[in-house]
Amino acid sequence: QRKSLACIPIHFGIGGAADRNGVGTALAIQKVLPDIEIDMPYSHDPELGFGIEFFPKLRLHKVIGQEEYWRDTLSYALLGVNLDVRYTWGRFPTNCACLGVPCVGCDRNGTQAALFPTLTVQDPFKETDRILELIGRLAEDEKFWMETVQYAAKAVEQFGERATAKRFYAAVKEIGVEL
Fold first, then answer.
1. CA angle, corner 83, sides to 77 and 84, nearest 5?
2. Residues of the chain with pLDDT > 90: what percent?
3. DSSP 3-state assignment of 15?
4. Alpha carbon distance 162, 165 (integer Å)
5. CA distance linking residue 114 with residue 78, whole number of Å
6. Which residues are bridge partners to 41 per DSSP?
7. What does the pLDDT look like over 155-177, one tens digit per residue?
8. N or C: which terminal CB in the chain sees fewer CB atoms within 10 Å?
9. Per-residue pLDDT for 109 more than 50?
10. Strands 5-7 and 79-82, how do they pair?
11. Separation of alpha carbons 125 and 49, rounded Å
């Protein structure tokens, strides 16, 4: 089942740069994996979305709760693609790591490069060929896919509650505050 789905976390139909990022990402995936189903949430009427007619295998759904999305969609994905160029919290790569789903993304958050160093690009606009290569390799090379997932499963521990608390207390102590 994993081999049939790619997830993109950018909401379709919200307009502007987000639509362009989402549509560009979907086109790239479709080019490399023409038979894969692409999952994207939408915020508004998908008929108003930019470029929907170009995607015969696009699976749009209303924005749902995170827990439901992880359980029913992302956990079954072959891969996630997050080429958002904004500086973000890095939640999508972290979710992917926890669910055993490799994530191709750019280094604009604190988690992508730490969890998926071999799947991280610096500039998605300049590294399109590399992104397509990574997507294709994940789909075709099971060993590479598994190594990526196993690395992320171990690396995600650094973002867990205990590790985060430990870093926080060390930083507080470093600036001279006693707790």
1. 120
2. 30
3. coil
4. 5
5. 20
6. 61
7. 999 988 898 899 889 999 999 98
8. C
9. yes
10. parallel
11. 22
The dihedral region occupied by 10, where left means phi > 0, alpha psi between -120 and 50, and beta the remainder, is: beta
Query: Do 12 and 55 touch, CB atoms closer than 8 A?
Result: no
Scanning the structure block, which residue is given the tokens 């001279």?
176
Residue 82's φ and ψ, nearest 5 degrees, are -130, 90
CA-CA distance, 6 to 178, in Å (whole number)? 47
The one-letter code for the residue type at 113 is A
pLDDT at 90 over 90: no
| Residue that has been written with the tokens 């590790």 in this structure | 163
> Residue by residue, what is the 3-state secondary structure of 99-131?
HCCCEEEECCCCCHHHHCHHHEECCCCCCHHHH
Q: Which of 143, 92, 117, 121 is nearest to 28 (CA)?
A: 121
**8 A C-beta contact, residue 133 and residue 29:** no
Most distant CA pair in the chain: distance in Å?
Answer: 60
Amino acid in position 32: V
d(CA 179, CA 176): 10
CA distances from 48 to 3, 66, 85 (A): 29, 24, 23
Provide the whole-model pTM: 0.75
Residue found under tokens 């994905």: 77
**Alpha-carbon gap, residue 103 to 156, rounded angstroms:** 13
